[in-house]
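Figure-free illustration: sequence to structure, shown twice.
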Amino acid sequence: MKAHWSHKQRCPCGDDQCYLDAESYEEDELVEPMHLTEPNLSLGTPQTSLGVNKIVASPYVGQSFQSDDEALDYYTNFARNNGFLVRRERSKGNPEHPLGVYKRELVCHRAGPPLPIKSGEAKRQRKKKPSRCKCDAQMVIKKNISAGITRWVVVNFSNVHNHELLDSNDAQYFPGYRYISAVDRERILALAKGGCNVNLIMRALEMEKGVRPGELTFTEKDLKNFLQASMSINPESEGSELLKACKAMKEKNPDFRYEFTLYEINKLEHLAWSYAGSVRAYKLFGDVVFFDTTYCLHSYDRPAGVWFGVDNHGHTIFFCCVVLLDEKPDSYKWALQAFLRLMDKKFPQTILTDFHMGLKDAISVGLPSTKHAFSIWHLMSKLPGWFSASLGPQYEKFKSEFYRIHDLDTEEEFEHQWNQMVVDFGLGSDKHAALLFSYRSYWAVPYLRNWFFGGLLTTGHSMSIRSFFRGFLNSQTRLKDIVEQVGVAVDFQNQAGEEATTQQSQQNIKIRTCLPIEEHASTILTHYAFEMFQKEIMLSTQFAVFETSRENYLVRHHLKSDGGHMVSCIASNEDICCTCRGFECTGILCRHTLRVLSLKNCFLIPEKYLLHRWRRESSLFPRSSGYKYRSQALRSLASIIIQESSITKDRFDYVQWHLSRLLNHVRDMPATDEAASDLEPSSSFDATVDVVPARSITRGRPRKIRGIVKVTKEMQASS
């Protein structure tokens, strides 16, 4: 069962009557149906896709989706409207395959032959019609990678059923479509605490949602089962057991860190914890952190927060986790103070959070020297609840315009185009539009370019953060086990990150321009950082340069007759800066400065503009020579070899011949290695992490360019 990290929706406008429906916007997240007889004890994302009966067109061959989950979401909504359920059938591929899982078959729930009944059960069961009847309805999707972009394409679709279909209005009673959303679970527990019985709770929810009796996504029996399971929880005793678990983990791993407070008589109030590897990761990459406080342990009525970061390879890394008693400002202040103590009182340069007023006030007091910004993907998630009803069919156009405007170059452009957008969509008197504009300095990119955010100002990292704990926390996870389960998730993600990093180091780096500074950057930066750099250097070729005064330049797009950015380039001390503040915000030189460097015949990037946090030599993973490390490194290399050598028959024959000779040579070598130790850390929690220099890799470039770089170094040395 999947983890359900639920997102609480308290509107920052302060109006108690302003209710954000979490089910209306988490459409990019598809979660397995929750078993209705179990309480949601975990931090979980509400089931959203199945909660809204969206009318969708029939799938067709050639239709593409961003992910297999999105395809399943689409087909599930189509099935719900047509009176049947969807079941995952066969899939092809595995984690060892270069493409991973590359094909999936989604079928009608009645597909396949009837399941055989065991001899012992046949006598106990009454005769009934088998659910499976060899129905041929299906949708087959296949992974397609083109120009580095992954899409899932429909390669086969059939909607021919050999059985009766239910009316779409009756589909809600299918077990797969009955569920209690995270928002409803929170409301149910609140009503139950107020003394309402099951019947009153059902009527209250029907009135609040404006639906007729029987139109909720769950029945009275489902509600009774949920409440009965929730009643079995004893938060006080589990809080004590959680502290015992932390103490035991501390005795096992002395570098494990945790802090807590108690209230009344030894009742757990707040708890924050981190692991040894996470603390070391923060020392390297704690310049920008993401503090996500939109999680909640519903059955314990406790909010929770998680601190994340981004390493030099663009991977999401865990720093710290906290479970609080409530959402009061003092609780958030304690969380921030505990986080700093766990991280040896090192303040982050910047922090991103949800649009939350109480948290904003707590950060201004607890982290006065840290720049605070609101996460754009949390902000985008609130837009449907604020504007979809009032804008109707114009909402999608508004959302696209909002996202475009938030990333404009200058504050003047932003304010001018914002005012125009408000007029165009008739939002002059809208309280949420006024709220967004009044706090624009917290989320609009033109106001944030002076601070380093490491690429987190875009929505690119949202999915990786949401899926960080998926599969490790489920509805059966108890409060007393949460520290251990989070630790397992962190360890798993660290191993996945290490393997992905190894694979990146084996990939060919394609140089796309003839500029030596691109070649230079490819030898220093990680694959992730180099892609950001390469995007800027390719765009730099579209700009014209005008020298306005000595060592000052106006850089403007060649299709524009006005505007542009001023670049100051002082060669004597290798200083270069641009008014767009791109380097200050991302740590990567912007297209304007790169255009000027190219014009001034600069063949090497000044050392100070190759940040240590983006270099290959900054590694979170321990140096190791044990069996586990060797096996993983060879698997990663083999995956690349398979991918490259299977393209043509000549490549295949060449690789096969050399591998056969290599295998014979390896078999003749000694089977023991006395010089190397196979002892390795049992997990990333207690690993001793070294910052190790990675081997510089440059591939796919003519030798003459390398020669130019070498000559340039010699010329600079002689001068």
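We now fold a second protein in the same way, so the two outputs can be compared directly.
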Amino acid sequence: MSGAALALEVVVVFFLALFLLHRYGDFRRQHRMVLFATLLAWFLCFLIVFILPLDVTTTIYNQCKIDNRVHPKASDTFSPDNSSNSSVLPTQGVPKTCFKPWSYVPDGILPVFWRVVYWTSQFLTWLLIPFMQSYARSGGFSISGKIKTALIENAIYYGTYLLIFCSLLIYVAVSPQWHLSWYDLRTIGITAANTWGLFLLVLLLGYGLVEIPRSYWRASCHGHLQTKTYFKAAKLMTEKADAEENLEDVMEDVRTVSETIKYNHPLRKCIDTILKKCPVEYQEKMNRNMDDYEDFDDKGNPYPSKKSLVKLHKRVIYAVQRHNRTHVQWQILLDEAFHLEDVAQNETSSTHQFSHSFPSSAEPSGWISRYLYTPAVEWYWECVFRRWCYRVLAVVLCVFSAAVVWSECTFFSTQPVLSLFAVFIQLAERDYNYVYIEMACFVTIFFLCYCVYSTVFRIRVFNYYYLAPHHQTDAYSLQFSGMLFCRLTPPLCLNFLGVIHMDSTISHQQRQQTAYNSIMGSMQVLSFIANGFYIYYPMLIVLLCIATYFSLGTRCLNLLGFQQFMGENDLTSDLVDEGRELIRRERRKRQRTEDGDNRRREWRERYGEHSGRSRSTYSELKESDGSGTDTGRGQTRRDRSDKTELLQDVEPLDFNEDEPLETEDRRYAGGHYLSTSASRSRIFDDV
């Protein structure tokens, strides 16, 4: 199994990152370089999380060999007969039996692996992804134009960092008390990047440790979940209307520019590029109103410059993306609201069969829903078991959160060991239970990553950065998330190693370093950071958890004018009532659409076979003999004469007469309603 576990986890992590990118990104529309950079960033960050437990077990095994001071071959032997004695510590002077873990990675592989992964992620987060963000957000009409815009924006951004770094480098070179080598300079750079990441990590972790268990507990309360859905519907409708209004304004500017610049103008290619980014219905309107018979005249009215067209192109991309995203989110929110209302109605059902308001849109396809997830199973899950499962999960997550907060505040204490995760790892290390060590490390670091990454996926910054599922995330937000992951994952892993006392820089223990720590370098170069900031700053999690528990951030945003769900609040109640009315209106609209589809389906099922028989009968009549044809023609003549007589019995309406149309009730003598048009020329005005 040497190296097989490493290769297996690499494959699993790759498909996990690909699945998430497919859920949030759009493979068909977004640029290939944007997708590749985001996929690589997510893949490397998830890979660090999955491979780190293997590094821990490999380090423990190597530490055992160092303690025995014997040849590695003598300690690699494993016999089932003496496996029961592995938990007994040997007496002094007797070497311990070191058992090789099943996921052992050979020497020399992990250092190279961590070096490639770490420096690739740092290259992505500090150089490539910011450049690709500016490239994707640029409104240029050519590749060279977009590259030029991206270089200018990043030159201003990184010029400041370069100036600060050069100033510090000159200060270190001039000062006689500083004698730094290239290794020390590299360590200072890594420490600076990890310090920035740890600062942001503690903020996100303090929010996620409280909000994630609380969200699962509230999800078990059906009434609270339904009320919050109504609140979100009211806010989303406002955003949807704003997006539609913004799109209308941008399309009006595009129409004006398109009518100004004619087909033979040098900038007409730029206009055609902008029109391709517009929705189809707006393209048809603009093409219908376009007059290409007018020639370009240099002496006419002033034309917009190419720089203004670049800005307009950028506005079009943003407006169309926002409009499509809000439309898709509105449909998803409607389905969620309808489902919650169906759950509330089915809770009192005596048949224990879950019924949907709109069966055509609610029934998933596949054999799972047909044989396993039946209406009875769905009723028991939605109405009985779901709330209890969520409550149990919320309690388990709350216990994990309490353990993390306690360990973050006490991991610097080595005598006695107060960190709970360090106690668990050391107990398993005595028995060389590598499976338990890997599972404990993986569960712990996975929970930390879930608290941090889920907060990244939830935060929203004024529609400038927003991760929306169902392929609705724009390129800038995708790359921003990848950049955040690359900056947060290395300090998160260092913090985890410190919590379990595998980082000798923090625990001050004489033991072998993990391969990951060897890549990070010795933090003692900057002692005030290693002995001060890295130890005491994570204690701020306690204050952040208290602030999140009392919703201080939500209250501050609500005071600033950003409507937040506050429970017992007048503004929240008004938005909930508004959302309830919006959902009720959309339910009536969808019900009418559903009834119309059902009637058309029943009509096709009832008369589809009859129409098929009529066509077959007609073909048989054409192939029959001459006498049969003559008989059919005679019957056809009689039918036509009957229809003519029926039409002659009907009194024709004269639309030229003004007398009947000016009556008070607009009826004629027969009692039938006539058209309300005043003249014949206005009958088809609305067509």
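Summary for the second example: The longest helix spans residues 570-623.
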